Amino acid sequence: MRLHVGCAMWTLKPWQGRFLPHPLPPEERLRAYASWCDAVEGNTTFYATPSRATVESWAAQTAPGFRFLPKLPKTITHERRFHGIDEPLREFLAAIEPLGPRAEFLWVQLPGAFGPNDLGALAAFLRHLPRTHRYAVEVRHRAFFEDARAARMLEQVLNGFGAEWVPFDTVTLFQSPPTSDAEREAWTRKPRVPRRSAALTDRPFVRYLGRDDVDRTVEGWAFWVDTVVGWLREGRSPTVFVHTPDNAEALPLARRFHEQVRARVPELAPLPEPVPAEPPTLF
Q1: How many angstroms from the chain centroid is the CA of residue 58?
Q2: 3-class SS at 23?
Q3: Residue 107, CA atoms < 13 Å, CB-side half-sphere
Q4: In Å, what is the CA distance from 250 to each residue of 160, 171, 223?
Q5: CA 20 to 30 Å from 171, out of 78, 140, 184, 283?
């Protein structure tokens, strides 16, 4: 039984010198982040497949129990829509191989236009993937959240391959009008869909987006604290990623989420102690 928590990235300017040491060479930044959280989203792989040497550096900076959720490149999911993707898929799988068990899932994020009529293409794609990995699928078409038949159809496809359905919970963001530039931008870019919390596997994967206000973010995740506590008691090992529109406080917030869950499930292992952001002084 384990709860992994993390953020959308492992380096961010507002964290430098405040939460994480600064300056740090690139080959040390993930290591510092991993002292705060034990998981990270793999958004960078969506835009370009990294070199194998880069991924080897990621593996070297993290313990075997650390978790990555590498996102499949947009070339595969958004541009080619699963057609003619053998070469980019091969390159991606070869590049992330050094992560080994750290790659908790390979994350298939689908565009908002991908609807129920496209489920045959998703099933064919999942059938094409190697069974050496686990897979998690994120959909954004509203039909999957508002049409019970469409949701059942998607669940049937995912269950057939042992894949997880990734909820991206933006309910807190859209509860009231935005109050910052980052929130206003998020309102134009993030999906506005109902909350979904049914786990399909023993390793649920949640993305939660709060507000730039810390108290509102914490208030909004109460539902997920209850849900995660229930999953842990069922023997599941979830991974939860905490986002805010500007992500300035996301790093300590992820730890705070873990602490709230651990207060109710004391047998949960604690997170590591963060490395100091500043070197110790003599006085």
Answers
A1: 16
A2: coil
A3: 27
A4: 35, 17, 18
A5: 78
